[in-house]
Design goal:
The chain is mainly α and 320 residues long. The chain contains 13 helices and no strands. The protein has 3 domains: 96 residues, Tetratricopeptide repeat domain (Serine Threonine Protein Phosphatase 5, Tetratricopeptide repeat); 86 residues, Alpha Horseshoe (Serine Threonine Protein Phosphatase 5, Tetratricopeptide repeat); 106 residues, Serine Threonine Protein Phosphatase 5, Tetratricopeptide repeat. The protein is rod-shaped and about 100 Å long.
Length: 320
């Protein structure tokens, strides 16, 4: 009996359970042919050989149940390789029933078949998870494309559809979920739906705060949430958020990094809007010093802060 990758040992064991030993015949030839085709990845041909072997085994009751079970197992194997999980499951369940009827309880072949059923379910689950991940990715990419074209309402709808799928495939508490929430907040902010934008930013922020490797992303969401408050003239709520974003960036990037510029500029606009000219000038000078340093080193300021610090696309003009 030729061994088949994945289930080869189990098929050999099932044949050994038979008390009837027959000379090489049509079933044996078909079974060996199946094994060769399966190993070569020729699943279409292997499927035909396995089906024919099963027919022959069912017509040879003198050979015992082992051949039928072995053929059922082989046929299930190739169907599983082709992604036909429902059909494979039915065959394995039939093989298990026949083995439980013919073999004593606890026999190793029965355990093999149970393990094969469990492996089949795992493969089915992986396929389903992959399909969900691809769907989530497609929705997110479509939303980003709409966002870039300025079609913010349609983008927001795509982000909303992506959220439950991202939660399903990546986890509801992970960085991917936070990124989609933040993007949804951006789209709602562009539509001037500030309450919804703030809600999405707050949800993203709560996730980022639990992810120590996402400091820049956390600063970006703080900056965007502060900008939402600024546009509604909620200056007292905006200022501490801008300052928290600035502090995180200083700790991560240093005091002269270009990623600080969006927050510094926003603080300048905030203090000018509230008539705090001295504070505005302090942050203006800090921003000017960074720009001077960037010019001296021929570096261009980062526009995204490593996916963490988008400048609010709704400009931070003075509201006074």
């Amino acid at each position: 009996m030729s061994r088949i990758p994945g289930l080869g040992a189990s098929l050999a064991a099932l044949l050994l359970a038979s008390t009837t030993v027959l000379a090489a015949d049509a079933w044996t030839q078909l079974d060996q042919q199946f094994a060769t085709q399966y190993r070569a990845g020729d699943y279409a041909a292997a499927l035909v050989s396995a089906q024919r072997a099963l027919v022959v085994a069912e017509q040879q009751p003198a050979a015992g149940a082992a051949r039928v079970v072995s053929s059922l197992n082989a046929l299930a194997l190739v169907l599983q390789a082709q992604g036909q999980y429902d059909e494979a499951q039915l065959l394995l369940e039939r093989a298990l029933r026949e083995s439980e009827h013919a073999l004593p309880a606890g026999h190793s072949n029965i355990e093999v078949l149970r393990n094969n059923l469990a492996s089949l379910q795992e493969a089915r689950d992986r396929q389903a998870a992959t399909a969900v991940a691809r769907q989530a990715e497609a929705l997110n990419e479509a939303a980003l494309a709409l966002h870039q074209r300025g079609e913010f309402l349609q983008a927001a709808e795509q982000y909303e559809q992506a959220l439950p799928l991202v939660a399903q495939c990546c986890g509801a508490q992970g960085a991917e979920m936070a990124r989609v929430l933040a993007s949804l907040g951006d789209a709602r902010a562009e539509l001037r739906q500030y309450d919804e934008a703030a809600s999405r930013y707050a949800a993203a922020l709560a996730l980022y705060e639990q992810l120590p490797d996402e400091t820049l992303a956390q600063a970006g969401v703080l900056n965007s949430l502060a900008a939402v408050h600024y546009r509604q003239r909620q200056y007292r709520q905006a200022e501490p958020l801008f300052r928290r974003a600035l502090q995180l960036l200083e700790q991560r990037q240093g005091a002269l990094h270009a990623d600080l510029l969006p927050v510094l500029d926003n603080l300048v606009a905030l203090f000018r809007a509230t008539g705090q000219d001295q504070c505005a000038e302090e942050f203006r000078r800090r921003a000017a010093a960074i720009r001077k340093t960037q010019e001296l080193h021929s570096l261009r300021p980062s526009s995204t802060g490593s996916a963490g610090l988008p400048v609010p696309s709704f400009p931070m003009e003075s509201s006074s």
